[in-house]
Amino acid sequence: MSKNGHDFSVGDHVVYPAHGVGQVQGIETQEVAGLKLEVYVITFDHEKMTLRVPTAKAKTAGLRPLADTGLVSKALTTLKGRARVKRTMWSRRAQEYEAKINSGDLISIAEVVRDLHRAENQPEQSYSERQLYESALDRMAREVAAIERIDREAAIAMLNKSLVKATAAAA
User: Fold this and answer.
1) Which segments of the protein form a coiled coil according to its record (predicted)?
2) Per DSSP, what are the bridge partners of residue 43?
3) For a designed S-S bond to 104, which of 17, 35, 66, 96 qualifies (C-beta 3.0 to 4.6 A apart)?
4) Contacts of 85 (CB under 8 A, 6+ apart)
């Protein structure tokens, strides 16, 4: 809780499960159906979108602060792990990957990146695999970039370094 009685303050970077990293631009009171409602105004620059989340429902909506460094190193360790691909139909796996990406949980997102990562010497990915991989990598990179105060490209390079080590170790 910050000094104003809210979980987040203006300027804070936050993670919203379905959209990734955003920044709190303000806290407003709006009137909806005759009721006064206090909302966080969160912008997601990469999606050119503004979201208003009721302050009272922020926790249940899954809004959370950026991961701490301990969680980031756990996520990087997850990337170095062995890919775990279930022998189920692709459509079922794709749904599970999508759910993990939209959970907003950094470790779950890292699992998707790890499981869908392909090294140069591995078979080509299908279009939908590539889309899910890019989505998970982007989501993870944006959070790491905000935590480390680096740009998205530098964060992707950092993540790729962990992935390459994992692939080299597996070879």
Assistant:
1) none
2) 23, 50
3) 17
4) 93, 115
